[in-house]
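Input.
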Amino acid sequence: MRKIAITGAFGYTGKYIAKKCLEAGDEVITITNSVDRENSFGDRIRVFPMQFDNANALVESLRGTDILINTYWVRFNHRLFAYQDAVANTKILFGAAEDAGVRKIVHVSITNPDESSDLEYFRGKALLEKALIDSGISYAILRPAVIFGKEDILINNIAWGLRKFPIFGYFGEGEYRIQPIYVGDLAEIAYEAGLQSENNIINCIGPETFTYCELIQAIDKIIGTRRKIISIPPRLGLFIGGYIGRAQKDVLITADEIKGLMRGLLYVEDKPTGKTRLTDWLGEHKDSVGQRYASELRRRIDRTSAYLTT
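Output.
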């Protein structure tokens, strides 16, 4: 029996990875900021707090662990969290794993990370990849583009917007590409990568590639909303997104996210590693996806409720 530590096993990606590990008969622990979050695992997973300010305690929580699967990150800067803190904290986690004798780290990154990028998300991910590679610990780095599933935010909120508004806009020409991967497929990849002895960097992309405009059109068609879908200037899109976000007490989209999309950073030239088609998944969930708005900040602030699902 292997002992596997997962950051955020009661969240989104971490939950699917934890489920896969338990099904395989492994011992699972989680390191989380949400030790009291409602979950379906019960006492099958031991829970430890993320004590980035107490490295010794973090080391002890990882003692005896064979594999660490790290999903910890932040989506944007906020008064409650920031990219620079996420980078610093993750480096502390990597150091604790090394001191605890962890054999391998599987780290969830992003497509097209770049240390020289002006976008903090992609720059921070690149800095962490370098830190992990330089650590000397055996590693697997997973680079997903967009992850979809029942607890998803992006795809769900596009569907929510299509259900709610008669007109839906995409930024600029909408020809930038995106390769969504199913969260269950990502969990399979993460688990299998942890079992391998060699170091790996894996682009985690689904079997379908869309332009952003095509993605919105596909969602619109499958859920049956038949909205008018138009091109809008990015600055106008950011303004409208800001208004909707404030109304929802959330951050719907950021300027950096729009830039990342329009620069094609959620696309790579590689063969698919996921097998689940987004269009098939949407067809199975067409009556539920987008019925409720999915809030990033609500998840960050409410540390007891389970994530809403479609």
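The chain has a mean pLDDT of 97.
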